[in-house]
Protein backbone atom coordinates (compact mmCIF):
# COMPACT_ATOMS: atom_id res chain seq x y z
CA UNK A 1 0.00 0.00 0.00
CA UNK A 2 2.87 2.34 0.84
CA UNK A 3 4.45 1.73 -2.59
CA UNK A 4 1.10 2.33 -4.28
CA UNK A 5 0.70 5.62 -2.44
CA UNK A 6 4.25 6.64 -3.37
CA UNK A 7 3.62 5.82 -7.05
CA UNK A 8 0.33 7.75 -7.13
CA UNK A 9 1.92 10.75 -5.43
CA UNK A 10 4.91 10.55 -7.78
CA UNK A 11 2.74 10.69 -10.90
CA UNK A 12 0.50 13.40 -9.47
CA UNK A 13 3.58 15.55 -8.81
CA UNK A 14 4.96 14.67 -12.26
CA UNK A 15 1.79 15.93 -13.92
CA UNK A 16 2.04 19.12 -11.87
CA UNK A 17 5.67 19.66 -12.89
CA UNK A 18 4.91 19.15 -16.58
CA UNK A 19 2.07 21.68 -16.29
CA UNK A 20 4.30 24.15 -14.42
CA UNK A 21 7.33 24.02 -16.73
CA UNK A 22 7.10 24.99 -20.36
CA UNK A 23 9.61 22.27 -21.15
CA UNK A 24 11.44 19.59 -19.18
CA UNK A 25 14.30 18.30 -21.31
CA UNK A 26 15.89 15.06 -20.10
CA UNK A 27 19.30 14.09 -21.52
CA UNK A 28 21.55 11.14 -20.76
CA UNK A 29 19.16 8.90 -18.81
CA UNK A 30 20.83 5.95 -20.52
CA UNK A 31 23.87 6.68 -18.33
CA UNK A 32 22.00 5.75 -15.14
CA UNK A 33 23.01 2.27 -13.94
CA UNK A 34 20.00 0.04 -13.30
CA UNK A 35 21.33 -2.68 -10.99
CA UNK A 36 24.16 -0.99 -9.10
CA UNK A 37 24.32 1.34 -6.12
CA UNK A 38 24.14 4.91 -7.40
CA UNK A 39 24.87 8.28 -5.86
CA UNK A 40 23.28 11.11 -7.84
CA UNK A 41 25.23 14.38 -7.46
CA UNK A 42 23.39 17.38 -8.96
CA UNK A 43 24.24 21.05 -8.86
CA UNK A 44 21.84 22.96 -6.63
CA UNK A 45 20.13 26.22 -7.65
CA UNK A 46 16.44 26.00 -6.84
CA UNK A 47 15.81 24.54 -3.38
CA UNK A 48 13.27 21.67 -3.31
CA UNK A 49 12.31 21.82 -7.01
CA UNK A 50 15.36 19.75 -7.90
CA UNK A 51 14.36 17.03 -5.44
CA UNK A 52 10.92 16.80 -7.07
CA UNK A 53 12.24 16.90 -10.64
CA UNK A 54 14.73 14.10 -10.05
CA UNK A 55 12.39 12.01 -7.89
CA UNK A 56 9.79 11.70 -10.64
CA UNK A 57 12.04 11.29 -13.67
CA UNK A 58 15.39 9.61 -12.92
CA UNK A 59 14.26 5.98 -13.53
CA UNK A 60 15.31 5.03 -9.98
CA UNK A 61 13.60 5.49 -6.61
CA UNK A 62 16.27 7.52 -4.82
CA UNK A 63 16.70 8.33 -1.17
CA UNK A 64 17.43 12.01 -0.55
CA UNK A 65 19.93 13.42 1.92
CA UNK A 66 18.33 16.69 2.97
CA UNK A 67 19.44 19.42 5.35
CA UNK A 68 18.06 18.69 8.80
CA UNK A 69 16.38 22.05 9.50
CA UNK A 70 13.47 21.23 7.15
CA UNK A 71 12.53 18.31 9.46
CA UNK A 72 11.75 20.46 12.48
CA UNK A 73 7.97 20.45 12.04
CA UNK A 74 6.44 17.04 12.95
CA UNK A 75 4.02 17.05 9.99
CA UNK A 76 6.78 17.75 7.49
CA UNK A 77 9.03 15.20 9.20
CA UNK A 78 6.50 12.44 8.57
CA UNK A 79 5.94 13.57 4.97
CA UNK A 80 9.66 13.76 4.21
CA UNK A 81 10.24 10.33 5.74
CA UNK A 82 7.49 8.95 3.49
CA UNK A 83 9.26 10.51 0.50
CA UNK A 84 12.52 8.75 1.44
CA UNK A 85 14.25 11.91 2.66
CA UNK A 86 16.99 11.49 5.27
CA UNK A 87 18.19 14.43 7.42
CA UNK A 88 21.86 15.38 7.17
CA UNK A 89 23.38 17.63 9.83
CA UNK A 90 25.69 20.59 9.20
CA UNK A 91 27.89 22.68 11.45
CA UNK A 92 25.25 25.41 11.48
CA UNK A 93 22.86 22.92 13.15
CA UNK A 94 25.21 22.84 16.13
CA UNK A 95 28.47 20.99 16.64
CA UNK A 96 26.77 18.34 18.79
CA UNK A 97 24.35 17.60 15.95
CA UNK A 98 27.20 16.44 13.73
CA UNK A 99 27.45 13.26 15.80
CA UNK A 100 24.07 12.22 14.39
CA UNK A 101 25.65 11.96 10.93
CA UNK A 102 27.42 8.76 11.99
CA UNK A 103 24.04 6.98 12.03
CA UNK A 104 23.11 8.65 8.73
CA UNK A 105 26.33 7.47 7.06
CA UNK A 106 25.75 3.96 8.40
CA UNK A 107 22.27 3.95 6.94
CA UNK A 108 23.62 5.11 3.56
CA UNK A 109 26.10 2.24 3.59
CA UNK A 110 23.28 -0.23 4.18
CA UNK A 111 21.26 1.29 1.33
CA UNK A 112 24.21 1.07 -1.06
CA UNK A 113 24.68 -2.57 -0.02
CA UNK A 114 21.12 -3.19 -1.26
CA UNK A 115 21.91 -1.52 -4.64
CA UNK A 116 19.74 1.45 -3.77
CA UNK A 117 20.12 4.95 -5.20
CA UNK A 118 20.85 8.01 -3.05
CA UNK A 119 20.83 11.66 -4.03
CA UNK A 120 22.69 14.45 -2.30
CA UNK A 121 23.87 17.91 -3.35
CA UNK A 122 27.68 17.95 -3.23
CA UNK A 123 27.84 21.75 -3.06
CA UNK A 124 26.11 21.42 0.36
CA UNK A 125 24.14 24.63 -0.21
CA UNK A 126 22.01 26.26 -2.86
CA UNK A 127 22.61 29.40 -4.86
CA UNK A 128 20.76 30.81 -7.83
CA UNK A 129 23.93 31.77 -9.71
CA UNK A 130 24.89 29.79 -12.80
CA UNK A 131 28.11 28.28 -11.53
CA UNK A 132 29.37 25.13 -9.86
CA UNK A 133 30.48 26.00 -6.35
CA UNK A 134 33.29 24.23 -4.47
CA UNK A 135 32.19 20.73 -3.46
CA UNK A 136 31.95 19.60 0.13
CA UNK A 137 33.83 16.48 1.16
CA UNK A 138 30.75 15.13 2.96
CA UNK A 139 29.71 12.86 0.11
CA UNK A 140 33.19 11.34 -0.08
CA UNK A 141 33.02 10.43 3.61
CA UNK A 142 29.84 8.47 2.93
CA UNK A 143 31.41 6.73 -0.07
CA UNK A 144 34.67 5.81 1.62
CA UNK A 145 32.94 4.66 4.79
CA UNK A 146 30.72 2.40 2.70
CA UNK A 147 33.68 0.91 0.80
CA UNK A 148 35.52 0.26 4.04
CA UNK A 149 32.57 -1.82 5.18
CA UNK A 150 31.62 -3.29 1.77
CA UNK A 151 34.80 -3.19 -0.36
CA UNK A 152 33.21 -5.25 -3.13
CA UNK A 153 30.51 -2.68 -3.92
CA UNK A 154 30.68 -1.01 -7.33
CA UNK A 155 29.21 2.37 -6.36
CA UNK A 156 28.55 4.61 -9.35
CA UNK A 157 28.53 8.40 -9.14
CA UNK A 158 26.17 10.12 -11.58
CA UNK A 159 26.73 13.90 -11.84
CA UNK A 160 23.57 15.76 -12.85
CA UNK A 161 23.41 19.21 -14.41
CA UNK A 162 20.21 21.19 -13.78
CA UNK A 163 19.81 24.07 -16.20
CA UNK A 164 17.01 26.62 -15.92
CA UNK A 165 15.99 29.21 -18.45
CA UNK A 166 15.30 31.47 -15.44
CA UNK A 167 14.68 29.68 -12.15
CA UNK A 168 12.90 32.68 -10.58
CA UNK A 169 10.56 33.30 -13.53
CA UNK A 170 7.25 31.80 -14.60
CA UNK A 171 6.85 30.13 -17.00
CA UNK A 172 10.28 28.53 -16.89
CA UNK A 173 12.04 25.72 -18.75
CA UNK A 174 14.63 23.24 -17.55
CA UNK A 175 17.13 20.78 -18.99
CA UNK A 176 18.29 17.92 -16.76
CA UNK A 177 21.48 16.35 -18.07
CA UNK A 178 22.85 13.12 -16.58
CA UNK A 179 26.59 12.66 -16.93
CA UNK A 180 28.47 9.44 -17.51
CA UNK A 181 28.83 7.38 -14.32
CA UNK A 182 32.07 7.50 -12.35
CA UNK A 183 33.17 4.30 -10.57
CA UNK A 184 34.35 5.06 -7.04
CA UNK A 185 36.45 1.93 -6.50
CA UNK A 186 39.09 2.95 -9.01
CA UNK A 187 39.54 6.35 -7.31
CA UNK A 188 39.66 5.27 -3.66
CA UNK A 189 42.98 4.58 -1.96
CA UNK A 190 42.37 3.59 1.64
CA UNK A 191 45.90 4.49 2.64
CA UNK A 192 45.53 8.08 1.39
CA UNK A 193 42.08 9.46 2.22
CA UNK A 194 43.08 13.08 1.56
CA UNK A 195 44.27 12.38 -1.99
CA UNK A 196 41.27 10.15 -2.70
CA UNK A 197 38.91 12.89 -1.52
CA UNK A 198 40.49 15.43 -3.85
CA UNK A 199 40.47 13.05 -6.81
CA UNK A 200 36.78 12.19 -6.40
CA UNK A 201 35.75 15.81 -5.84
CA UNK A 202 37.71 16.92 -8.90
CA UNK A 203 36.18 14.19 -11.10
CA UNK A 204 32.64 15.18 -10.06
CA UNK A 205 33.28 18.94 -10.30
CA UNK A 206 34.83 18.62 -13.77
CA UNK A 207 31.82 16.66 -15.00
CA UNK A 208 29.31 19.09 -13.47
CA UNK A 209 31.05 22.04 -15.16
CA UNK A 210 30.22 20.50 -18.54
CA UNK A 211 26.64 19.58 -17.60
CA UNK A 212 25.58 23.06 -16.48
CA UNK A 213 26.62 26.65 -17.16
CA UNK A 214 29.70 27.47 -15.14
CA UNK A 215 30.67 31.15 -14.75
CA UNK A 216 34.02 30.96 -13.00
CA UNK A 217 34.56 34.74 -12.80
CA UNK A 218 32.55 35.72 -9.73
CA UNK A 219 33.78 39.33 -9.74
CA UNK A 220 32.24 39.99 -13.17
CA UNK A 221 29.36 37.53 -12.87
CA UNK A 222 26.48 39.96 -13.56
CA UNK A 223 28.26 41.51 -16.53
CA UNK A 224 28.98 38.12 -18.06
CA UNK A 225 25.38 36.95 -17.61
CA UNK A 226 24.19 40.16 -19.30
CA UNK A 227 26.58 39.47 -22.17
CA UNK A 228 25.37 35.89 -22.56
CA UNK A 229 21.73 37.03 -22.57
CA UNK A 230 22.58 39.68 -25.15
CA UNK A 231 24.05 36.97 -27.34
CA UNK A 232 20.74 35.10 -27.03
CA UNK A 233 22.28 31.90 -25.64
CA UNK A 234 20.07 28.98 -24.72
CA UNK A 235 20.79 28.15 -21.09
CA UNK A 236 19.19 24.73 -21.62
CA UNK A 237 22.28 23.82 -23.69
CA UNK A 238 25.17 24.38 -21.27
CA UNK A 239 27.95 23.12 -23.52
CA UNK A 240 27.11 25.80 -26.08
CA UNK A 241 26.77 28.46 -23.36
CA UNK A 242 30.14 27.56 -21.87
CA UNK A 243 31.76 27.82 -25.30
CA UNK A 244 30.30 31.30 -25.79
CA UNK A 245 31.47 32.27 -22.30
CA UNK A 246 35.04 31.25 -23.13
CA UNK A 247 35.02 33.54 -26.19
CA UNK A 248 33.54 36.56 -24.45
CA UNK A 249 35.50 39.79 -24.22
CA UNK A 250 34.45 41.03 -20.79
CA UNK A 251 32.49 44.30 -20.57
CA UNK A 252 32.09 44.86 -24.34
CA UNK A 253 28.39 44.03 -24.32
CA UNK A 254 26.13 46.39 -22.42
CA UNK A 255 23.23 45.31 -20.21
CA UNK A 256 20.92 47.44 -22.34
CA UNK A 257 21.56 45.07 -25.26
CA UNK A 258 19.43 42.35 -23.65
CA UNK A 259 16.57 41.14 -25.84
CA UNK A 260 13.18 42.58 -24.92
CA UNK A 261 9.98 40.56 -24.65
CA UNK A 262 7.71 40.92 -27.70
CA UNK A 263 4.29 42.54 -27.98
CA UNK A 264 2.53 39.20 -28.55
CA UNK A 265 4.14 37.79 -25.40
CA UNK A 266 2.92 40.80 -23.41
CA UNK A 267 -0.65 40.30 -24.66
CA UNK A 268 -0.56 36.59 -23.81
CA UNK A 269 0.70 37.38 -20.32
CA UNK A 270 -2.07 39.96 -19.82
CA UNK A 271 -4.75 37.43 -20.83
CA UNK A 272 -3.19 34.78 -18.58
CA UNK A 273 -3.20 37.21 -15.65
CA UNK A 274 -6.82 38.18 -16.31
CA UNK A 275 -8.05 34.57 -16.57
CA UNK A 276 -6.20 33.58 -13.40
CA UNK A 277 -6.54 36.83 -11.46
CA UNK A 278 -7.48 35.27 -8.07
CA UNK A 279 -4.48 32.92 -8.26
CA UNK A 280 -2.13 35.68 -9.39
CA UNK A 281 -3.26 38.02 -6.61
CA UNK A 282 -2.92 35.23 -4.06
CA UNK A 283 0.66 34.70 -5.18
CA UNK A 284 1.68 38.36 -5.23
CA UNK A 285 -0.11 39.46 -2.07
CA UNK A 286 0.09 36.35 0.12
CA UNK A 287 2.71 33.81 -0.96
CA UNK A 288 5.48 35.81 -2.61
CA UNK A 289 6.14 37.95 0.51
CA UNK A 290 6.88 34.66 2.31
CA UNK A 291 9.82 33.87 0.00
CA UNK A 292 12.82 34.24 2.32
CA UNK A 293 15.50 33.41 -0.29
CA UNK A 294 15.35 33.79 -4.10
CA UNK A 295 16.28 30.10 -4.43
CA UNK A 296 12.90 29.21 -2.88
CA UNK A 297 10.84 31.30 -5.34
CA UNK A 298 10.08 28.41 -7.69
CA UNK A 299 9.50 25.96 -4.84
CA UNK A 300 6.86 28.11 -3.15
CA UNK A 301 5.28 29.15 -6.44
CA UNK A 302 4.98 25.54 -7.59
CA UNK A 303 3.63 24.40 -4.23
CA UNK A 304 1.08 27.21 -4.25
CA UNK A 305 -0.02 26.49 -7.83
CA UNK A 306 -0.03 22.72 -7.23
CA UNK A 307 -2.52 23.07 -4.37
CA UNK A 308 -4.49 26.17 -5.38
CA UNK A 309 -5.02 25.55 -9.12
CA UNK A 310 -7.36 22.53 -8.74
CA UNK A 311 -9.44 24.53 -6.25
CA UNK A 312 -9.57 27.48 -8.66
CA UNK A 313 -10.71 25.26 -11.55
CA UNK A 314 -13.36 23.75 -9.29
CA UNK A 315 -14.53 27.26 -8.32
CA UNK A 316 -14.82 28.23 -12.00
CA UNK A 317 -16.90 25.12 -12.64
CA UNK A 318 -19.27 25.83 -9.72
CA UNK A 319 -19.78 29.52 -10.52
CA UNK A 320 -20.31 29.04 -14.27
CA UNK A 321 -22.56 26.02 -13.66
CA UNK A 322 -24.79 28.06 -11.32
CA UNK A 323 -25.08 30.87 -13.86
CA UNK A 324 -25.45 28.62 -16.92
CA UNK A 325 -25.23 24.81 -16.93
CA UNK A 326 -22.70 22.20 -15.74
CA UNK A 327 -21.81 21.55 -19.39
CA UNK A 328 -20.90 25.22 -19.89
CA UNK A 329 -19.04 25.09 -16.57
CA UNK A 330 -16.97 22.15 -17.81
CA UNK A 331 -16.24 24.00 -21.06
CA UNK A 332 -15.13 27.06 -19.09
CA UNK A 333 -12.69 24.97 -17.06
CA UNK A 334 -11.32 23.30 -20.19
CA UNK A 335 -10.99 26.70 -21.86
CA UNK A 336 -9.01 28.26 -19.00
CA UNK A 337 -6.85 25.16 -18.56
CA UNK A 338 -6.24 24.95 -22.31
CA UNK A 339 -5.14 28.58 -22.54
CA UNK A 340 -2.89 28.19 -19.49
CA UNK A 341 -1.30 25.10 -21.04
CA UNK A 342 -0.60 26.88 -24.33
CA UNK A 343 0.75 29.96 -22.53
CA UNK A 344 3.14 27.92 -20.38
CA UNK A 345 4.38 25.81 -23.29
CA UNK A 346 4.90 28.71 -25.72
CA UNK A 347 6.16 31.43 -23.36
Automatic annotation (TrEMBL):
Record-level Gene Ontology MF annotations: glycerol-3-phosphate O-acyltransferase activity; glycerone-phosphate O-acyltransferase activity
SMART domains noted in UniProt: PlsC
Keyword DNA-binding attached: no
Keywords: Acyltransferase, Membrane, Transferase, Transmembrane, Transmembrane helix
Pfam families on file: Acyltransferase (PF01553)
Membrane-spanning ranges: 261-286, 311-344
InterPro entries attached to this UniProt entry: GPAT/DAPAT (IPR052744), Plipid/glycerol_acylTrfase (IPR002123)
Residue stretches making up the Phospholipid/glycerol acyltransferase domain: 38-165
GO annotation terms (biological process): phospholipid biosynthetic process
Residues in the signal sequence: none
PANTHER family: GLYCEROL-3-PHOSPHATE O-ACYLTRANSFERASE 1 (PTHR31605)
UniProt protein name: Glycerol acyltransferase
Species this protein is from: Aggregatimonas sangjinii
Organismal lineage: Bacteria, Pseudomonadati, Bacteroidota, Flavobacteriia, Flavobacteriales
